[in-house]
Design brief:
151 residues; alpha+beta; Aminopeptidase; five-stranded mixed beta sheet; two-stranded antiparallel sheet; 41% strand; globular
Length: 151
């Protein structure tokens, strides 16, 4: 397996990556204080029930991948290929006004998880961001349904 840029020929197969989200844990963010006296605490906690949620390859993601792969738009589109099929995808776009790169999507097929594919792609994204003079890689994560969290 090798991490490489997404090619236009890969675009149709990207939708076949099974990116179903499964987790027994979540990150809890606790904020205390006011104004300039704010502190944050982040800790990993267990969910009451295992979260299993569909994560389809949307038309918006398909469009972004196509724009980057064909060179019509700036960005980073990486894939990992196994036996001629893509099994992982990373999409990111620069935000020059902020000096950052925004991670748009990171998905690994369920049969190929826990092998370091996402970690490898993230390291490559971070290095690309550094080389371009960016100060950070920004990501927005999915939020679990409220009833999943213990009280």
């Amino acid at each position: 397996m090798e991490i490489r840029p997404v090619a236009p020929a890969d675009l149709e197969a990207l939708a076949e990556i099974d990116a179903t989200i499964e987790s027994n844990q979540y990150l809890h963010l606790d904020r205390t204080g006011e104004d300039l006296n704010i502190s944050w605490k982040l800790e990993q906690r267990s969910l009451r029930t295992k979260l299993i949620e569909s994560n389809p390859f949307t038309d918006e993601l398909r469009f972004i991948a196509r724009q980057i792969a064909t060179g019509a738009d700036e960005g980073i589109a990486l894939t990992v290929e196994h036996e001629t099929l893509p099994v992982a995808l990373l999409l990111a776009q620069p935000r020059p006004a902020r000096g950052t790169i925004k991670l748009i999507d990171l998905r690994v097929d369920s049969d190929h998880r826990r092998q370091g594919l996402a970690t490898g792609m993230m390291y490559q994204l971070i290095q690309t961001a550094r080389d371009a003079g960016n100060t950070a890689v920004r990501a927005v994560t999915a939020e679990a349904p409220r009833q999943q969290f213990p009280r």
